[in-house]
Amino acid sequence: MAIANATKNARAVGTARADVNKLTTYDWTALDKRGKRMKGDMQAKNASLVKAELRRQGMNPQQVRERAKPLFGSSGKTVKPKDVAIFSRQIATMMASGVPMVQAFDIIANGQKNPKFKDMLVNVKTSIEGGSALHEALALYPVQFDELYRNLVHAGESAGVLDTVLDTVATYKERMESIKAKIKKALFYPIMVLVVALLVSMILLLFVVPVFEQTFAEAKAELPAPTQFVVAASKFMQSYWWVVIGIIIGSVFALIFAKKRSQKFAHFLDRFSLRIPVIGDLLHKSAIARFARTLGVTFHAGVPLVEALDAVSGATGSVVYGEAVMQMRDDISVGHQLQLSMRQVNLFPNMVVQMVAIGEESGSLDHMLFKVAEFYEEEVNTAVDTLSSLLEPFIMVILGVLVGGMVISLYLPIFKLAGTV
């Protein structure tokens, strides 16, 4: 009987979600009681219902039009982690102010510019109205609201402090996105400069070098070895440019595919990245900051340590650290202390282990983890600035070798001819 009722409720929620998805958004223009022109939008099954609702509110409808759909449909916009972070702060603020959950979802959904995320929030709201708990409703979208997010919400609901936990979750998501943004900022500049250098080199080989080659042939000049190499590279690019581009694009896709499909390759690539000078240090500090922040938040919310570590493993942003956290979870499940299991994986600095040990002894593990997170988040900020200053001369050398060397090799025969005149 219970199973039948559960099935019936699930079908009811599914039907409600289907009804919500059938709603169309209409842009309307109306005159209020003062004759002032008002504009807005409304979701309804047809335009007549929109006009009826406007009249019920005391307005005279002037124009009701179905909103034009995007060129590539609503699926063209993806839901980014930043969207989830902003939503977390909004829902936490509203619930702390006493706004009912369903109404809060309604307000946030109506203010969304991303149509896909708006539909998600409407469906979550519909599920809550059907009797689901918030963590159960969020489980409809496990990609956007991962297991860690749902566990924290579940802990807040169980303890009756959902508004407080939501505020903690919002702060956590904002900190995590801030760290990701800093790392992307540190790596984006050098990568883009190298890409531009490669594009400039290809343009020189395809369009500029052939002009010089023709001039040298007419002058019957003897070409130095560097110039001969550049001319040979130009001829190869003219004949097989599509092969070169195919190899570059194919290599990038193969690298991404192999990392997703092969755990061993992902581990190798991650460990190699952690050993790169300067960049590896930044990735180490980032992983420790994420580990400490995530574990501190989950433990503070009342999630048992073993379950918390299970969720933390995917939040470090590193395959190596993720596997280490899973190993720590196994050690703790058989009775070891957290600080002892951290020593065994040999990844965490002694300062971090000592802080955790003090937290375990004093019963303030979450507080110590937050202190560790704040320290390493500041270290990440410093490392980003250091990385930017260290990479600038390195980038200049790359540009000088690729572009400058090519230009100099083209002018060597000209200098030689000028010397014989």
UniProtKB/TrEMBL annotation:
Domain Type II secretion system protein GspF: 87-210, 291-413
Membrane-crossing segments per the record: 186-209, 239-258, 394-414
Localization terms from the record: Cell inner membrane
CC terms in the record's Gene Ontology section: plasma membrane
Keywords from the named record: Cell inner membrane, Cell membrane, Membrane, Transmembrane, Transmembrane helix, Transport
Family as reported in the entry's similarity comment: Belongs to the GSP F family.
Protein's name according to its UniProt entry: Type II secretory pathway protein
Keyword Cell inner membrane on entry: yes
Membrane topology: Multi-pass membrane protein
Main location: membrane
Gene3D superfamilies noted in UniProt: Type II secretion system (T2SS), domain F
